[in-house]
Amino acid sequence: MKQKETLLNTMGIDFSHSIDEIGDEHVGTSIDTPLREDAFEMDDDLKIELIEKHFKEIMYVLGLDLTDDSLKGTPKRVAKMYVKEIFSGLNPKNKPDAKLFENKYKYNEMLVEKDITFFSNCEHHFVPIYGKAHVAYISNGNVIGLSKINRIVQYYSKRPQVQERLTMQIGNELKEALGTEDVAVVLDAHHMCVSTRGVQDVNSSTVTSFYSGKFERDENARAEFMKYISL
Ligand SMILES: [Zn+2]
Fold first, then answer.
1. Is 154 among the residues known to form the active site?
2. What is the mean pLDDT of residues 143-162?
């Protein structure tokens, strides 16, 4: 027990309270991803090196033989995947810059992009959340390339997440990128921590929404958006 505490303390982690109290209820605590101030003082290479080392320990503790040809490369692969791919959205340097274009054709109706596939990970279990994002905005004279909307969705997905926070982060970013309040976001997602463990419900999906500006005020705008995404 003493040895366990010493190990955890060297990582600066306080395990004196039970962490599972929040975990299974999937409650997020804030709109911002809880990052430390010094989150990016280490560069990617050092992060990969350290995660590799710690993941190797996890596999070792599980009893796996790390000299096995099939397993020996796994710690490095997982570390690279965490830093460069599935958690790359933690680092602001990877944030897509959304260039605005003038809306020359004066299209000021609702623009909807639906069925944007996203893959994220539950921050309570570190297993995938995947689903579709549906996004709408009403241009105030500027538009962004459609692929930029996908990139914004992907960027915030590539973090340990809770679905509610992901939805709000995408919504707030679109408001900022587009310079408009009139933004709507709906996420419909499957949580593998619900389907493959715990209650093992394979059929349920979770729907979250973010409405701002006209979408918040005007029931008709919301209804129009809903009509498009149910097509
Ligand atoms: Zn979970």
1. no
2. 94
